[in-house]
Amino acid sequence: MDRYNDFSVEDFVWDDFFRQWALSPTPETHALWDDWIDANPEMLEKVEQAKAIVLSLRLHEPEIDDAEINQVVKKTVGRITEAGEENIRQPGRRIPVFSIPWMQFAASVAFIVLLGWAVYAVMIKGDEKPQSAQGDTVIEHHESFIEKVNTTSETLQLALSDGSRISLAPKGRVRYPERFDGQRREVLLEGEAFFDVAKDPEHPFLVYANGLVTKVLGTSFRIKAYGDSREVTVEVKTGKVSVFAQSDPHLKEKVEDRQFQGVVLTPNQKIIYARNKVKMVKTLVERPEIVVSKAETPQFEFEDTPASEVFDTIARAYGIDILYDEALLKDCPLTAHLDNQTLHEKLDIICKAVESSYEIVDGQVIIHSKGCRN
């Protein structure tokens, strides 16, 4: 949160994380901002003014960050500041309510936002661009970029300079450097795509998609980030990924750090990111797949096998965590052939046989049991 220490009112108004807190506060973000204000009491007035402006304008969408609009805002604020100083130099003069600097700023921003949305609505139909991180401040500069749009009804296969591959779904759009010559490999996505990323621990691979950043070193995963959807999903097939919001106040540190930060996902796990609530829910993919090699894949044929051993076998095969009370389940024998069932069907059959139930919490399977009746 240190980056907010020198913010002006207009800086707060245009900041995604601040607007999301002002419009859709959560207990976590509320506590975060309260703590910061307590540590920086001199910023309280600016925060209150900026919050009042955001609430009055209802800036629900964070995408309006056009450089020209920001430039107009700065010029407007400059004129407002001059007007405010002139009022201070004339203490005997009665100041109308609308002449109060921050009220003028609110009116100016309202006009700018309406103008910006009008321009945006026209331009987005002709030449939409995938969204990047806040103000592109963390994306490295490259001499030339390649932009691909899938206008067909088939998946478009793309090969990147580092050996990575992208399977771009219809109506999807990606933008990436012609060559990855910086510290990071960065791609901007709008729509849906499957990524098969070449391993390179020294150069993390990052995908910016509709408010969410996905960071990997070398793995395969799918991202769904449609512009008209309030949700972004990331599903991991192999390896490990970390995800975090572009509005995260520690975005720059998380992007530049070669270690994993944020929410970490492993095979068969996925994250659902609610953009309007800045909330992430970790769960399992709809149809988990076996992640071990064919030679290591068990037959799933059990004959009077303890339920605890059955759950361990399934957990290893699918690369997931199955948590249970071993003392309760070690004496619960199971006889079943589960070769052709999905993971959820396997769990349903096992739980019914040993008088248990299960739920998925934070990408893990939790087994609830009271033991078996002999």
UniProtKB/TrEMBL annotation:
This protein's UniProt keywords: Membrane, Transmembrane, Transmembrane helix
GO terms of molecular function: sigma factor antagonist activity
FecR protein domain location: 149-241
Transmembrane segments: 102-123
Any Pfam family: FecR_C
Domain of life: Bacteria
Domain Protein FecR C-terminal, first and last residues per copy: 300-367
Keyword Transmembrane part of the UniProt annotation: yes
InterPro entries noted in UniProt: FecR, FecR_C, Ferrdict_sens_TM
Annotated PANTHER family: PERIPLASMIC SIGNAL SENSOR AND SIGMA FACTOR ACTIVATOR FECR-RELATED (PTHR30273), PROTEIN FECR (PTHR30273:SF2)
Protein name: FecR domain-containing protein
The species this protein was found in: Dyadobacter sp. 676
